[in-house]
Give the backbone structure.
Amino acid sequence: MLRSLWTAKTGLDAQQTSLDTISNNLANVSTTAYKRARPVFEDLLYQNIRSAGLTENAGTPNYQPDDTYLPAGLQAGNGSTISATQKIMSAGSLVQSQNPLDVAVNGNGFFKVRTGNGEAYSRSGNFMRDAGGYIVSPSGSKVLGVDNNPIRIDGTATDIVIGTDGTITYYSGITNPPSINTAGQIALYNFTNPAGLSSVGGGLYFETQSSGAAVARTVNNSSSFGSVTQYFTEQSNVNVAEELVNLIAAQRAYEITAKSVSASDQILQKLGQL
């Protein structure tokens, strides 16, 4: 069997995964705070037919210690693979809204939410209130404050204001004149390697060994986290023009690799006729 058939097969698999990744980026171009993924290609293990650094007469009776070393070895490649789909965590553009609970992280950092599967992190700040008055994500995950407890706003609250440090204040209409109340402070966290977070859909990420432990925003490191901006949401960082170019390039690479399979097949047909 020709090695080229199996080599081309690995190329087809790699380009198919690349097409899947690009298609997912384009499908999420309007998803709030979505981070595009980039396929990372690697070559597979090589078959060493002749190792680099050997002499021309190595392994023969004519071998002499002062023989000239060959400048290069002889290796046969075994194709390519996609070793990772790296998340590009650059910030998307901010778009203004009319919802007072819409917030965006203007800089680094993630919101922390409590899900049915534990605590997760998100850049998506299109929040709202549930029936109990808690600030939640569209999927119902409760937003956590700096005390790691869910943030609740009284049902009579008016004129909700969220400061750049995440502090939430509001007027309460129970008293006359209305009193100013503090609901809590939205927590921000960052990671040594944000690309190492595990994406589970819904704009949620879980901490992993690769991402490192979450680092909380404090007064001492607040400058490196940026700020919280009310009445704005972060858009996807997908560049449609760039993704379309990548899509065409991946499609052409797939077609060329498929021609390698066709050429190998024609060679096998010729060999079968001998």
About this structure: The chain has a mean pLDDT of 86.
